[in-house]
Amino acid sequence: MHGRAAYNRLSNSTFESRVAGLVLAMFATMATIYVASRLWQDAESRTYLVKELDKRTMQNYSVVSVDETLKLIACREQQMRLSAIEMDLAAARQEGFVSGYLSQNDTQHSKKRHLAVIGIITTFGRKKNRDAIREAWMSTGAALRELQDNKGIVVRFVIGRSANHGDSFDTEIDSENSQTNDFIILDDHVEAPEELAKKMKSFFVHAVEKWDAEFYTKVNDDVYVNIDALGAALSSHLDKPRVYIGCMKSGKVFSEPTHRWYEPDWWKFGDGKWYFRYASGDLYTISRALAQYISINRSILQTYAHDDASAGSWFIGLDVNHVDDSKFCCASWTSGVICAAV
What we know:
9 helices; Hexosyltransferase; about 350 residues; 7-stranded mixed beta sheet; alpha/beta
């Protein structure tokens, strides 16, 4: 009996020593792997520094200071990060996540640049106005395509979506567009009078990312435009990289909350309460560089009570050529004018 107990104690002791040995071996293996990985990670940096030391030795430099060594390592790390960023950017461009203007300098455009993209701002219940514009100066079907191909002028109606997405207002626009194919439908914008400034911003963002043009023009859906006169006027400004063309004015700022054109940010405009110079909203044009500027800074551009004053505010402080052209004043249809409001 005593012999069997002694035998059991001996067996347990042997088992415990084997387990302890396995645990120690496991820790030793993990420590070896860790040390080896650290040595492997540092090997490339050490090789680089050795080369730098060799270069300096050949150039009669006796030592490399600690500060210089740290600078070399930091430079190496920055180069690796830059390479990684460039690879990510290339992959994003292939996937279509990079806007067209970012890659313009990398590749040549396969298509000829348009002269202008014209956005006619419209809304629900204005089909009669749109039909009148189609008949008067916009054209439809093959003629609209010919205007784009031969004269380099793209014309589209611009509209958002109903607050009740998918309701009869939306379906009517979708049905009309299926027949005419002449709309820019801003799916992320909700149609509302107080959101008109944001609609202008969305139009410029959409237009500059879809079409490559020299100019981008905004016009209301109650304005008649002489396309040939507009094209001639814009062509005379092709030498100006940042240009804002229109019938310039300065409107009064209303601080009374009950007023129709109440400006919540009235206090920003000083004691005189007048807006800065801006182009009348009936018709105005901006160059490609300014449209790209709007697209890039869309999330931080302030909007005000008036959509046209908002557009003018985006160019304050920029090196922009403001062109006050009376031919863009649409008050009446007289000889030489480009537009007429009806």
